[in-house]
Amino acid sequence: MVKINNISVTGLRGVRHDLSIPLNGKSALIYGDSGSGKSTLSDVFEWFFYDRIDHLIPEIGRKGYEGLRNIFLDDNELGSLSLEFTKGEYNSEKTIEFKNGNLKANLSNDSKDFTDYLSASQEENLILCYKELITFVLYSKSDKLRALSDIIGYSKVTDTRDVLRTVYNRLSKEINTKGFDNLINHKNSQIIEQFDQNVTSDEQFIGVVKELVKPFNLDMKIEVIKDINEVLNKIKKPDDSKEVKQEIFIIKIEESLVNLPSNLDELEKQYTDYKAKFNAIVSDIEKLKKLTIEKLLTTGKELLSSEGYLENNCPLCLAEKDKAELLTDIKRRITQLEEIKKEQKELIESNTAIQQQITATIGPFQSLLDDKQIDEKSNADHKTNIEAVVKAIKKYHEQLKTKVVGESKLDNENMLLVDRKIIETVQNDCKTQLEAIRKAREKDPKWDAHGKINIAAYAYAEIMRLRKEKVAYEKQRDTMETVYHRFLKKQKEALETFLDTFSERIDSIYQFLNPGEKVENIKLVPIEKDDELSGITIQFDFLDNKGVTPPHKLLSESHINCLGIAFFLTSVDAFNKQNKFMVLDDIVSSFDASHRKRFADLLIEKYGDYQIILLTHEKTWFDIVKNLVHSKNWNIKTIKYIETKGTHLEEAPQTIRERIEQKITNGNESGLGNDARKYLEHILKHIALNLEVKVAYRFNDVNEDRMAFELMTELKGIINKRKCAELQAEPVIDRLLGSLFIGNKDSHDSSFEPTFGDMKAFWQDVTDFEKLFFCDTCVSPVSFRYYNEGAKQVSCKKGDIIYTWKK
């Protein structure tokens, strides 16, 4: 897995000039006062990996870019972050510059390996800032589910579930729309009307037919339903086809009206729901703006995802930009518009449902209008009425074309209602016509028998077809329901297994941070509504209270922070597959003192294999962690800020030494005495530590800022006390005590101005003094660690420097 070897920042946020932090894959503890710009590091990491700075977006917008460049940069200067990784093929520099009046970001590494790595890293949790610490803990139940789903890829499973549910609902709705039971009942009533009895089987139907044709002495056997056609041919009149066609056509008109009332009810209901969704969007200007942007972004996503678009630029403004980076940015912005997308999706689905309902409602009438029989003179009124109904229904379709823009309005429901009196008129006209046809038939027994058998046979065949079709639809629906519920069960089982494992880890971390407290058995618990997963809550046991939820009901801010830490670290363990580093920025600010030490222990003991970049402005905690990681090979840095330099690293003493020697070589006296004094103070602290030179205790930072004169005086005193003749004889100690004022005067406003020669001589005293206590051969200090009890001597590690040191 990947760690970081070097960080180099220039011209970003608080950093004006180059800020380089060599890490070599090791962890780093970085201290900086509030306002020193230490959070520049977490900001630029977020920009590098996620191409945004979230906390800047609400005020600045546009991914926070306008707040990214250092304000003192000229327009022609670049801001940059260069990261060197333990896998060298991922090394890259990301720059931001003004180009054609716009801010543009570029990555120097465009290899497929790096692009794939960056894309995978964007799915990982790499950065945690204080402001984001308790976000998940305080999320709503549905937001917790959404956040966790995005992290673990569960949203794709949810999408599959939604597809299954949509198919199931569509099948159920289609069964209702087709009105199988209504049509079958209507057909049965036609058979009863013709045969004066109900018919439930082929045998029963054939038996009734035999009785009807018995008077005609037909020379044939009637044994199966197929024989009915031959019966009809034998008893039909040569000239009755016109009447038969008309009777069948009238029957079809009646059938088309069977489900019309219920279908119109459903259409009216759906339109009311659609109108409410439509108005909710068009009445909100911000939603309309977002909707417009979402449409543009979606179109851009489709274009960039197509194989035909190969250019590395924005297809809208033609600005140069890496295609993969642009596509990633568009996908992220589309995700940010999730809420308006959800409303838009619901509106589109509602629109589609109404169109389907219109088609289902009009369908039977369209078949009638396509039938040549409709043009018969006797059907003129039917045609007029049917066309009126179809035209009225199509008004709904016109409403669906209304664009979702400001000031758009849909017609009120009462303006679209279909006149149901027309339906009654058609029904009454059909009834009158059928009665007239059948009354005329009664004069001729064969014609009458033919008509009854023909109508009943048609109705019976339709019943058989409708039943078969109904069974097929219901089988599909029931199968889909079974698949859907089994999927829900598996989905629930898989999520619960994951949540149990995830919860165990969260609870383990929380217990480490809060040993012996009565907050136990912390769990992420799924919430169901109507047998579906609707959210996730956090529950725990508190004293005798079981299953307490939500956390902020009983827990303090510090304890809630512990939960936030536990969730973040657990997600790092579970999901970070590319990177073995994390950036933690000021996350102990609201921790109780007891939690701070435990958190430091947690990082060192449980996450020692991770590269941790730990940023803090808490001096006490910095000191705690510094002592804990002193032997762990961590990089320990301090960040400072001054107006002339911006955010920068406090220089290590060796760096100061190199600068001093360079100034002496170049004859540059600026700040030379001050630098020499600072270097002397540093080595004096180490000498005092190694030889147990005791000074009066001072609180906090005062203890760190020991002046050189105080340390030198105490050191001379201990040399005399230990009867160290070798050092007592060294003139450089008294000489240095005498020349200390040169370094002090160069550090403060004074009438005395030391010359370059004065400062050079002072530096010579410092280096001569250093050689007395630090061995060049073994590169170790003279220390009590190498004390020879028998000889009463103290030395360096190798023994090249030895002094008498009597206790």
CATH superfamily of one domain: P-loop containing nucleotide triphosphate hydrolases
| pLDDT averaged over residues | 84
Spatial strand sequence of the major β-sheet: 7-11-12-3-13-14
The CATH architecture assignment of one domain turns out to be: 3-Layer(aba) Sandwich
Helix run count: 27
Structural class determined from secondary elements: alpha+beta
Radius of gyration: 44 Å
CATH fold topology of one domain? Rossmann fold
Text of the CATH class of one domain:
Alpha Beta
Structural descriptors:
single chain, 807 residues, alpha+beta, Rossmann fold, Four Helix Bundle (Hemerythrin (Met), subunit A), six-stranded mixed sheet, five-stranded antiparallel sheet, 27 helices
Please describe what this structure looks like.
- With 807 residues, the chain is an alpha+beta fold.
- Among the domains are: 4-126 and 576-647, P-loop containing nucleotide triphosphate hydrolases (Rossmann fold, 3-Layer(aba) Sandwich); 260-436, no CATH class; 653-804, Four Helix Bundle (Hemerythrin (Met), subunit A) (Up-down Bundle), CATH 1.20.120.330.
- 57% of the residues lie in helices and 13% in strands.
- The protein contains 27 helices and 19 strands.
- The strands form five sheets. It has a six-stranded mixed beta sheet with strand order 7-11-12-3-13-14, sandwiched between helices. It has a five-stranded antiparallel beta sheet with strand order 2-1-4-5-6, with helices on one face.
- β17 (783-788) and β18 (793-795) form a beta hairpin.
- α17 (445-513) packs across α18 (557-575) and α21 packs antiparallel against α22.
- The radius of gyration is 44 Å and the shape is elongated.
- It starts with a strand and ends with a strand.
